[in-house]
Amino acid sequence: MTDIETLTDALLAFREERDWAQFHNAKDLAIAISIESNELLEAFLWKSAEETKQEKIEEELADIFSFALLLAHEKGLDVTSIILNKIEKKGQKTLTRR
């Protein structure tokens, strides 16, 4: 089992214990990712990078990744594959621009 599968299984168990699956459709998970991303941005607002609290960054990134993994699960997506495919596509775009 990969680390991503382990994390996803832990998130699904956590969600099941709280009966939250009813709220976790693709649309609402995508909205949650956006909201949590904005909370991460807020941690940096009006501060230098040094002033931003590491704990806040960790908390918001955990929320973002958690919702992203749940969204991938709901859509039947293999996170490793889609990220590697995106890296390959970006690499091709970069090479053609040079």
UniProtKB/TrEMBL annotation:
Short name of one Pfam family: MazG-like
Gene Ontology BP terms: nucleoside triphosphate catabolic process
Q: Does the record carry Transport as a key word? A: no
Q: Which CDD domains match?
A: NTP-PPase_RS21-C6_like
Q: Which organism is it from?
A: Paraflavitalea soli
| Keyword terms of this UniProt record | Hydrolase
Q: Which GO terms describe its molecular function?
A: nucleoside triphosphate diphosphatase activity
Q: What is this protein called?
A: Nucleotide pyrophosphohydrolase
